[in-house]
Sequence to fold (58 residues):
Amino acid sequence: MILNTLGSVHMLTWIGTVMIGFFLLSCASVIVTSGFQILKSLLKVPKDRGFVSRAQEA
Fold:
């Protein structure tokens, strides 16, 4: 009886650990994707400004 209870507690702990790990990996992927999009947009802005300034010179 005691071994069975400890086994189910261990299983619940394992399931909780997997759920927390999945949640943290999901958060990390969202943060990395958002950072990549921000970096991409920041690198794109100077090119657009340079093109606009050249168009104004002509």
Summary: The chain has one domain: 1-58. The CA atoms of residues 38 and 45 lie 11 Å apart. The chain has a mean pLDDT of 79.
